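Progress report, Aim 2. The chain analyzed during this reporting quarter is listed below.
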Amino acid sequence: MENNLQTVHCTVNGKPITKEVALTDRLLDLLRNQLGLTGTKEGCAIGECGACTVLLNGEPVQSCMLLALQVEGKQILTIEGISGPNDTLHPIQQAFLDAGAVQCGFCTPAMVLNAYALLMKTPHPEETDIRQAISGTLCRCTGYSQIIEAVSLASQRMYPSNQ
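Predicted structure tokens for the chain:
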């Protein structure tokens, strides 16, 4: 029987990891099954819903669509990696709670990571920027208004105007 495992080296939530993965393992499988990072959700498994979104070198990607071996040498950030010291909520997470942007919660990790990526590049986004940033993740509960409000609130809290 031939060995279908290969080693992948990457950084997940700031920690270097080395794992043996099957050639067919997706990044989603590595995160959930080998690393126990279950905040990344599997929704559709075909790249349509966005529930499995993580940040790869700072950019949102659907982890169900990438093989684990494709992240060799790269940086991955999951929802578990954005909390503050002593596991305090990140300002984006707190804004989602305060704006009522969490209902069933299935899409929330992906939405928060999309917001995080946006706010790292565009500290004061317009509503159209926010809509574009979250457009790859489906939400069946909130109607998106609360999510847009949450991202705006997070922007105000993270980057207060000097008025």
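The CA atoms of residues 31 and 37 lie 5 Å apart. Helices lie at 27-34, 91-98, 108-121, 127-134, 145-158. These observations will guide the mutagenesis work planned for the next reporting period.
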